[in-house]
Design brief:
single chain, 2 helices
Length: 75
């Protein structure tokens, strides 16, 4: 956790954002009281890999079969 005064954070904006993106929690203070917490949403900046979930998903062989009691009749 990084604690920084708001007046200092304004001049170090790039560093504050970079810290949050690395996964750090940044607390901004005003008059030595915590007022804002900044956390990164995208902490894992690794590129997506197509097929990385292969073998983790299973569907029943009858997944696309019709339901016996299902009708398209709309009253």
């Amino acid at each position: 956790m990084t604690i920084i005064e708001i007046s200092e954070a304004q001049s170090q904006f790039q560093q504050v954002i970079a810290a949050a993106l690395r996964g750090e929690e940044v607390i901004l203070t005003q008059d030595q009281q915590p007022v804002v917490k900044i956390t990164g949403i995208l902490t894992d900046l690794a590129p997506r890999r197509p097929g990385s979930a292969e073998g983790m998903i299973w569907m029943s062989d009858d997944f696309n079969d019709s339901f016996e009691d299902f009708t398209d009749d709309i009253p």
